[in-house]
Amino acid sequence: MRLSGIFFVSAWVLFFTAGCGADGKQSPSDAGLDAAEAGFEGGMDSDADTDSDSDSDNDSDSDSDSDAGPGGSMGPGTDNEYDPDPSNSDGVDTDDDGWLVLDEEALVLKYLWIANSADGTVSKIDTEEVLEVGRYAVGLAEDRSDPSRTSVDLIGDVFIANRNTDYGTLGPSSITKIAAENERCVDRNGNSSIETSSGTDVLARSTGTSVPEGRSTDECVLWTRGFDSLDPDPLDANYGCYGMRGVAATAETGTNFEYNGHVWIGCYGWNDGVDVLGGRAVYKLNGNTGDVMEQYQFSGCHPYGFLLDKDDRLWISCRDGWGWSADEGVAWMDTDNGSDTFMPDEPGLDDGPNPYGIALDSDGHVWITKYDGYIVRYTPGSNQNLDNGTWEFLKVTDNFRGIAVDKDGFVWAIDTTGDSVIYLINPAEFPEDTAIVDSFYLGDDDVDGGVVHAHNGVGVAIDFDGNVWGVSRNGGDDNGYATRLEVDRSGSLPAVVAKDIVPVGKEPYSYSDMIGYHLRNFTTKEGWYRQRFEVCPGQSTRWEEISWDIETPADTSVILRARTADYTGDLPSAVWHMVAEIPPDTSPKDLPADLPEGHYIAIEIRMYTEQDGVTPRVGPINFTYECTTDLE
After folding, report:
1. Interval 51-61 mean pLDDT
2. Fewer CB atoms < 10 Å away: N or C end of the chain?
3. For 190-267, where are the E strands, in sequence order?
4. In a 10 Å sphere around its CB, with 0-12 CB exposed, 13-18 middle and 19+ buried, how is residue 191 labelled?
5. Is 613 exposed, middle or buried (0-12, 13-18, 19+ CB in 10 A)?
6. What is the pTM for the complete model shown?
7. With 0-12 CB in 10 A as exposed, 13-18 as middle and 19+ as buried, what is 593?
8. Cβ atoms < 10 Å from Cβ of 582
9. How far apart are CA 421 and CA 157, in angstroms?
10. Going by DSSP bridges, is the β-strand pair 89-90/158-162 parallel, antiparallel, or unpaired?
């Protein structure tokens, strides 16, 4: 018996801009199936059974059944209208006609990751609850960690650069990866439970049993890769990295669009005026294993901070240590071949280059904070090397470190002179003095009956609710702080309306893309939604043909994938099959010949755009199928 039914599926949306071709699109993290109704990305359904296959591509799969019964249909005009929410989608919504569209307001990453340098730990802050929900030991050992920059990938997992630096002395560095959700953690002891941190508790470092001695036993700490001959699992002897600082997660997928984000790291490698092993080195590491994929050497830059732009260029803040030299400034690297271009010095600055923080906006401007209190904007030139652009600068305070740009283009930079203060800069007025809109102290005179003295500001980040976070290093025996400035964006200028403070570990030192806001807003723009269907009660099903009503304006595309199983418990481990890439594929289309029969079919729709304000639209999807053998 051959039947036909109309099914509507939606897309899992993440907002980014780079890597939207066949080799650059990102897949959602799969989070596991509940026996009755599947959960989605991030394990938001607390009752969902999880499938964590650490030997796979690090997907942890999830599909949702929105009460679509046998033989049912979904989409506009049916009994099963689209209803995307954080449990079944990310970055998508429906338009007035009920069609799926990209919606950047639906992005759901919510964790801020702060490196506590003096503790050798990283704090995980829930930006919605304004609460520390985890703390993790990182690095190869407590005395060989010194974490600094953090970079969050497209699904919220984090890479941590461990400098292993006692100022004046550089040791071999390492990098650690931590899963944001339990569904992506690894049950190393096989007890069907994930042992991981909660609140401020830190799980002990290993004494050398199932985990190499000195490393974290937390099962959400996925791996640590050391550039050190003492590492039990060392890299090739030709690799070296001292003073690792630059770190930037990528937006990439594997050949079958499985999630496969990697990471770029930069080795400062400057010790007392001399380059050490791995000095100026830059590596691309496999995000699933930490193995080296590519290795380059900067020609004139000691990397201090990294950011990727929408064209997959790696922008670098270059510093030369405390003895400033001509090698300070801004550079970019072509990630296809490793060639780097050093921008010419900013004209008219008496204090020299002296860069620190780096940020990019949606128009491609490069924003830099200078340690001597300047904010600088570089507009890249039109030539191939981008080095014939224009510099603009504004002296604001004595010292700056971190900087971030929000989706509206406003710039937030943190003063590190004494008290931690964040300045708000209006780009429309820059570089005039009138660009300085306001400044905000990050401490408070009355927090739970006490006084919070926030000083030595280091990092600044934007969360997905548009609020601004500042990191205060403090120092000595005092813990540092993460301060949230609640921002009202209803007017022509942002207005800070409230302040919340979260204590973290000692000497926090993060000023990178520590929430993933930059990657998901300025690097690539994507979205997803998944749906599970059944059409043959009590029987397996041969899925034969698919047709669709999908609109893809210029610079947009849609990917359809499918997997099948006779039983819901088998669906998470089923292999995804590419169904269609639109364009160039046209409707209708035969389903892959190697797609197995299965009572259930899970459909994944992913939507991409390379232009702000332009989105594909997904309408009804129709399958033809044949009911086959009876199931027991």
Report:
1. 35
2. C
3. 221-226, 244-249, 263-267
4. exposed
5. exposed
6. 0.82
7. exposed
8. 22
9. 29
10. unpaired
